[in-house]
Amino acid sequence: PRDATIEMLRKLPPVFKKDGTVTAGNASGISDGAAALVLASEAAVKAHKLTPLARLCAYGVMGCDPHIMGIGPVPAVEKMLSKPESEGLSLDQIDLVDVNEAFAPQFLAVQKGLNLDIEKTNVDGGAIALGHPVATSGARITGHLAHRLAESGGSIKSAVGTACIGG
Question: Residue 109's CB: how many other CB atoms inside 10 A?
Fold first, then answer.
């Protein structure tokens, strides 16, 4: 861990525009990473005697104004929860949420837009803490949530993962 203080973070210059709020202290680092997932139908699980870690119930893909960077998880999660495959769950019934934030202000906008409970959001750290391996972030988030579900012994029953350009 770095010995960063609030005072040190306040001195960091904005990176995108002169009076901006995004600095190296509240942005995710681009990191190396690799991940692989195996998605299988129920028939394939039975045929190959697989033991799933989790079940993918629903997903949402949604476009939004490209001038508002990173707000995609809000309409994508709302769309996903409106699908019959979401089994009538509302966001407040979801046990765990991972928001892959590129920047702290982007996370705050998604948190506000979805009214996320901070006690169950990014509980193991998001991209700012863990890094943002761009081409594998979705697999990293999905794999992480699948393992948390499997390891919980049933105490965590549902999870939602999002990426800053979608959900």
Answer: 18
Residue 64 in contact with residue 103, Cβ under 8 Å?
no
Residues 23-38: pLDDT tens digits? 988 888 888 888 899 9
Tell me the backbone φ, ψ of residue 73, rounded to 5 degrees: -60, -30
How far apart are the C-alpha atoms of 92 and 114, rounded to whole Å?
10
Please say if the pLDDT value at position 1 is more than 70.
no
Neighbours of 28 (CB within 10 A): 23
Q: Give the helix/strand (H/E) hosting 151.
A: helix 137-151
State the Cα–Cα distance between residues 112 and 94, nearest whole angstrom: 16
The rounded distance, in Å, linking the Cα atoms of 128 and 70 is 14
Burial 134-150 (b: 16+ CB within 10 A, else e): eebbbebbbbbbbebbe
Let me know if 164 is exposed, middle or buried by CB neighbors in 10 A (0-12, 13-18, 19+). Answer: buried
The β-bridge partners of 158 are: none
C-alpha triplet 107, 31, 115: angle, nearest 5°: 15
- pTM, whole model, 2 decimals? 0.86
